[in-house]
Amino acid sequence: MNWREDYRRKVMSADEAVKLVKSGERWATTHATAESLVLAEALCRRADELEGVQLWQGLNWGDAPYCDPKYHGHLDVDTIFCGPVTRMATSDGRGQFCPMSVSLIDRAMATTRPVDGLLAHVTPPDEHGYCNLGVSVDFGASAIAHGKKIIAHVNKNMPWVYGNYNTIHVSQIDAIVEEDVPLLNIPPIDDTDPTSSKIGEFIAELIPDGACLQMGQGKVPNAILKCLGDKKDLGIHTEVFSDNLLPLIESGVVNGRRKTLDRGKITAMFIQGSADLYKFVDRNVMINMMPGWYTNSPINIAQNDNVCAINACLQVDLTGQVNCEWNNGRIFSGVGGQSDFLRGAAYSKGGKPILCLPSTAKGETISRIVPLLPPGVPVSTARIDVHWVVTEYGAVNLFGLGLRERGEALISIAHPKFRDQLQNEFDEFWRGMKL
Questions:
Q1: What's the rounded Cα separation, in Å, for the pair 38 and 66?
Q2: What is the pTM of this model?
Q3: Annotated active-site positions, please?
Q4: Most buried residue, 4, 19, 110, 312, by most Cβ within 10 Å?
């Protein structure tokens, strides 16, 4: 049987396809803007027939209909990084959060956290019968490698993105659902607030010509990129690739010429943004989509020189401990790739691991720099992995500093109205330590 005959034999409705999902199984979903709402809604329609199905995923930007309380016990999310809807489900006990670095997802799927299948969202097959994972390779490649079943939503609107591990042959797929729907778009993020702009300016000063950047999507990353127009030969090795990079690519500032690993390529594990971004990456040879075990490996990250890894956090205490996942007594997001990239940048020649945060929260009523992380708040990033910390009041490098010196440095970039209070509490802490 040739692949075209095989393909036609496997085409069915979404409701038929999701009958492959059985009670007690764990299924991975493709990530972020690549999740198939078509398959998710079909699965919800048969939820009453199922018990104990877990949906293993990372960041969710969609509606996550399976997180509706009425599906609890039938369909539950199992995530390493919470989005807006999955955050509510895990906080209410209708799903679970699994702390894990992105670089180790493949190992988890192969050992302690196996998956039974993948709900994939892919391109139509090429002339050789291969579908492409498009804008989400991250751990989809691992689910293909370690899972047993694949249900593929084939969508003509999914861009074909180059990489080494992001194709599935028709022969590997168990059920095919054809439905052309727009990809989820992430609206532009307003980055004009003074705090983000000032943080962006301080971080831009740390980035030399020829640097290899990792950063996410949000106010501060956008603000940083607006300050890099005079840089030369920047490279990208990152998790997420979004619209904020397009102006620097089009101007030639980002070209990857000085990269050691994947020279001339933009290496990422998922793409999210606008329709224009999806059009830009479609069959663009500059784009190199790779799984999380590759992009987030500290060994791979460190192969490039001058890696500037820029990550946000929620709190930093005066010893350098970082919370990036817990807010108001609940899981807010996850560790994601923060530890991976901070460590990779630390071992990169000339690298700079950078953490950034506004100095305050809730209308300047709460300091994000605190004497010690409160009891019960997890340490997302250990103080041994913390180097540069940046707020709108400056940038300090904690690497090589003793505990007293770290505290003084962090107080210097706290909001001025909290500095005396922090200093008093810091002094009290040291009196209690009797050192």
A1: 12
A2: 0.95
A3: 239
A4: 312
